[in-house]
Write a structure and sequence with these properties.
The structure holds 2 protein chains of 2 kinds. By secondary structure, chain A is α+β, with helices and mostly antiparallel strands. Helix content of chain A is about 45%, strand content about 20%. In chain B, helix 2 packs across helix 3. Classes of the chains: A alpha+beta, B mainly alpha.
């Protein structure tokens, strides 16, 4: 039996429904709890047999045609029923201008509110990410080789970061740089997925940056954070949140550390 | 003409989820023929109330209607199905070995039986999650439950399924003695 604390979390983890911080915490727990590891593999086996049994049953053709007949389906005779709706262009133009004005105002308010409420680190990390996207600022050391990037940090910051190669998973390493957040120099690794850059900043977890309720995005940039081995990691990118979470998962579980 | 537009929108948004509607009905009613009737009724109900759907998750919106139709139908035609709820905790809670599960693979019927033996209020969690691939948020919307209860509901449903699979083993061996 899995231990009480994680019994339900195990299902959240299995179903990919924990956030990055929760998943990292659970993965840490897994390492020290054989019961949970066993329970997790049992759940995965059960899921596999459910999938293999192909239990999903498709609607019979008779149902489809009955439904279409009952709602008087238009498909097949679309040429007859297609009608151009009447559009009042003058009204539409006025509405569009109004809508634009309102949405601009709302957006500005939303940005201002977010700036005020978001814990300062998320904003600072997004700012650093934005700065890095300016020409020539992406990386202080540019290399796809983790064995070049990791030693570069030696002597520049107190503790050199964990550097893994995720090229095989389509997140190639681009390089690394030092960001200054608050007044603290921190290490940032740069990864790439297609044309999207990912900044991965590591900060000692005991630093004064408070881990409160962090927004999942700041100014349109997605933010994923988790704590592992005394460091808090911040991944910032314009990549979709799901993909950024996948990246976080790969980084956490990757064995290819230097 | 508004009606034609509305119908085209219904066909584009809702009709593609007919398989999902049928599958949920089939597993809640445990019968393909009943499922066909109830799914058809649910589709028509969805069409009549299509004006209440605006944007968003059309599948979840439809499945919520299908689920309601199924429970209405069970209530009317097979109320005993809904009284199963209290038959839990009577089975031994041993863990099922990977080997036993591998055996279960070979026998789709065993899984079908086990799944069908669960009370519908737990069965639906597994159908929506494992067959339909719904997120917790969608499951919460479809079943009108708070999202926080989905994780614990799934945990219990999986445990029950495991117990039901396990319970089939002695039943097979002791078939000659007692049923």
């Amino acid at each position: 039996m899995p231990c009480d604390y994680v019994e339900e979390r195990l299902h959240g983890y299995l179903d990919d429904e924990l956030d990055a911080a929760g998943a990292a915490e659970f993965e840490r727990h897994l390492k020290s709890c054989p019961e949970c590891s066993a329970a997790l593999s049992a759940e995965r086996a059960l899921r596999k047999s459910l999938a293999q049994a192909q239990l999903y049953e498709l609607a019979p053709a008779s149902l489809r045609s009955a439904v279409q007949a009952r709602i008087g389906s238009a498909s097949g005779k679309q040429t007859v029923t297609t009608m151009q709706p009447q559009i009042n262009w003058k009204w539409l133009a006025t509405a569009a201008i109004l809508l634009l004005a309102i949405s601009t105002a709302l957006l500005t308010m939303a940005v201002l509110r977010m700036r005020g409420a978001a814990p300062e680190f998320a904003i600072a990390a997004v700012d650093a990410h934005l700065r890095s996207l300016q020409q020539g600022h992406l990386a202080d050391v540019q290399s796809t080789d983790q064995h070049t990037v990791k030693p570069w940090f030696n002597g520049r910051i107190p503790n050199s970061p964990r550097v893994v190669d995720l090229g095989k998973e389509d997140f190639p390493l681009i390089g690394g740089r030092i960001d200054v957040v608050g007044q603290t120099p921190v290490s940032t690794l740069v990864y790439r997925r297609a044309k999207h850059m990912i900044s991965l900043t590591a900060v000692p977890a005991d630093s004064h940056f408070e881990l409160g309720k962090v927004p999942k995005s700041v100014n349109g940039y997605n933010v994923v954070h988790w704590t592992d081995n005394g460091l808090t990691y911040w991944a910032i990118s314009d990549l979709e949140l799901k993909e950024l979470e996948d990246f976080a998962h790969l980084f956490r579980t990757s064995q290819t550390e230097l | 003409m508004l009606e034609a537009q509305e119908r085209e929108r219904f066909e584009a948004c809702v009709l593609p989820h007919l398989d999902a509607a049928f599958n949920l009905a089939r597993w809640l009613l445990r019968d393909r023929r009943d499922a066909e009737d109830v799914a058809q009724e649910a589709m028509l109900r969805a069409y009549r109330f299509f004006h209440t759907y605006r944007t968003g998750d059309a599948r979840a919106w439809l499945l919520q209607i299908v689920r309601n139709c199924c429970y209405d139908w069970l209530n009317k035609n097979r109320p005993a199905d809904l009284q199963d709820e209290l038959q839990e905790g009577s089975l031994p809670s041993k863990e099922l070995s990977p080997e036993a599960l591998a055996l279960a693979n070979q026998d789709r019927n065993r899984l079908v039986k086990a799944l069908e033996s669960l009370p519908p209020h737990f069965r639906e969690f597994l159908v929506l999650r494992e067959l339909e691939g719904c997120s917790y948020k969608e499951i919460a919307a479809i079943t009108s439950r708070p999202i926080g209860s989905v994780m614990s509901g799934l945990a219990r449903a999986r445990q029950q399924l495991r117990e039901a699979l396990l319970a089939q083993e002695p039943a097979r061996k002791e078939m000659g003695r007692a049923v």
